Amino acid sequence: MTQVLELQFATADGKTTSLTIDAPKPNVTAAEIQQVMETIMAKNVFVGQAGALSAIKGARIVERQVTEFEVATE
Prior knowledge:
Helix content: 10-25%
Distance between the termini: 29 Å
Number of helices: 1
Largest sheet: 4 strands, antiparallel
Shape: extended
Strand order of the largest sheet: 2-1-4-3
Radius of gyration: 16 Å
Strand content: 35-45%
Structural class: alpha+beta
Order of helices and strands: EEHEE
Number of domains: 1
């Protein structure tokens, strides 16, 4: 099963943008995530078309399971 940590931010234009981190460390805490998100905003690391990151909207771990089938290929 594949996991990503999705960090959700509000932008200066009032839109929502997300940053994803592949394979987050096991047992990451909400406090650690909060600290990283605050640092990203304070350092103004990412600025996109919708403007600078202006607020934290949320964070979540997204799990995805992929099942591959062997099929004939040309």
